[in-house]
Amino acid sequence: MPTDSLLxxxxxxxxxxxxxxxxxxxxxxxxxxxxxxxxxxxxxxxLVQRRLPEQGEGRRYxxxxxxxxxxxxxxxxxxxxxYLESLAAMAEPESPSLETRAIVIExxxxxxxxLDSMPTKVRKAFLLSQFEGLTYAQIAERLGVSVSSxxxxxxxxxxxxxxxxxxx
Length: 168
Description:
Layout: H1 4-29, H2 32-49, H3 58-88, H4 98-117, H5 120-132, H6 136-143, H7 147-165
Helix pairs in contact: 1-2, 1-3, 2-3, 4-7, 5-6, 5-7, 6-7
């Protein structure tokens, strides 16, 4: 349960900036309902994270959180759309159930977040290995690093995959 030391400033932040944030989002998104949802999610994120902006930084801080939420939503929609397009190409008997589809979309979102959180060279090494089938020596040459660096990158990437698989 949040403490009063958090609730009072959050309440004040909400009263002073909620309408502004919702209007700001509506102008950018062109969708009143989506703007209202993201504005609420922004304040919910503040409550859950228990982090408030510094004095005078409220709007900038709220706008950054809201931007991140919009990006997360956009990425989720992009992944879902790509998956649904691939399903549409399948024969009807091969099409997975709605429950399986939801699980696959959630898994794809976790993979996307995992890849996005990796340092650039780690992500590139992992993708070159897994999707282009390059050897560590070929990856090292392509990235301009040593083979031992590629080994370290792959260890980090595989550890991240393992953490996503077994986080629960």
